[in-house]
Every structure is written in structure tokens, then in C-alpha cells.
Specification:
YbaK protein; alpha/beta; 5 helices
Length: about 160
């Protein structure tokens, strides 16, 4: 683990009972297509950890993570409906880092610096295991759906287009 980026080591240290097998791709895995090509898996087996801000009826804002298969796009209306709020918007790069402790493009599905609600699209279950970002745009790790469910504790819902 000592050869891994600091963010990946921090993520691995944040979970108990799960041996994270981080793979490094120096060329990067910024897009789901890049990650799938590097790993050799279907794009649908890539977990996009997207940070969005939910907007309440009282104009309150709450950052959340939406886990979406790599071959699908998040539907902001469906996310807001699943959360019971009036709207949602993509988080800014600063909001992503402040809420999760990780940069956009490398945000993992769990291990965030602040407790965040997590929503997972039901169609992630088409593949098992799936592959998620390990804290940087150049690192990923495989995880079973059961472990993803246990560690991220998401609300499973239809939140993709």
C-alpha cells in the first residue's frame, strides 16, 4: 500500500473488514470509458461516484453522493425525488473536495471526511463485482455489490436516465 497515492491509502485505512485491492493506471481512469478499457470490464461495471447538492423547499443545501453505472447518466429530478427534496445540482469542485475529502474524478463511494447520504442506482446490480474510484483519477478497486451495500450504505433507487 505504501506505493499508492496518499488519497488511496487514506481510503483503504478508512474501512474495516474489507481488503481493498487498489489498481493504479498511470494514464488515468477519468471517464467511465477510460476505466473500463483499462480494467477490461464493461462500462456498466464502473461505479461513477457523483457528488450533487440536494436543494430543500427551504432552500437548504445538502451534499450527497450518487452511485451510477458508467454507461448511464444521473437524472437530477429522480435523485431529488428519491431524496424527498425539491431539486438537485452538480456540486462544484470545491464542494466535492470539502464534502468528501477527495477530488472530483477520484471520489470513492465511501470513506468521506464528512458523513454523507449515498444514493445508488438499482442498475448497478447488473454487474458483480463493480469497479470504483480509489481516491484519485488514476486508482480504482473492485468491490462486490454486497460489500458496496455494506460500506456505502446507500439508498437504492432508480436515479439514472
Amino acid at each position: 500500500m505504501s506505493e499508492l497515492p496518499e488519497a488511496s491509502r487514506r481510503l483503504a485505512d478508512s474501512v474495516d473488514g474489507f481488503e481493498m485491492q487498489v489498481r493504479v493506471f498511470p494514464e488515468g481512469t477519468k471517464t467511465a470509458q477510460d476505466a473500463a478499457a483499462a480494467i477490461g470490464c464493461p462500462v456498466s461495471a464502473i461505479v461513477k461516484s457523483l457528488v450533487f447538492v440536494l436543494i430543500g423547499a427551504d432552500a437548504s443545501e445538502e451534499p450527497v453522493v450518487a452511485l451510477v453505472p458508467g454507461d448511464l447518466r444521473l437524472d437530477t429530478v429522480k435523485l431529488a425525488d428519491a431524496a424527498g427534496v425539491t431539486g438537485s445540482r452538480r456540486a462544484t469542485l470545491d464542494e466535492v473536495r470539502n464534502a468528501t475529502g477527495y477530488a472530483a474524478g477520484g471520489t470513492p463511494p465511501f470513506g468521506h471526511v464528512t458523513p454523507l447520504r449515498v444514493f445508488a442506482d438499482n442498475r448497478l446490480r447488473r454487474n458483480d463485482p463493480v469497479w470504483a474510484a480509489a481516491g484519485t483519477p488514476t486508482t480504482v478497486f473492485p468491490i462486490s455489490i454486497a460489500d458496496l451495500d455494506r460500506l456505502a450504505a446507500p439508498l437504492w433507487a432508480d436515479v439514472s436516465e
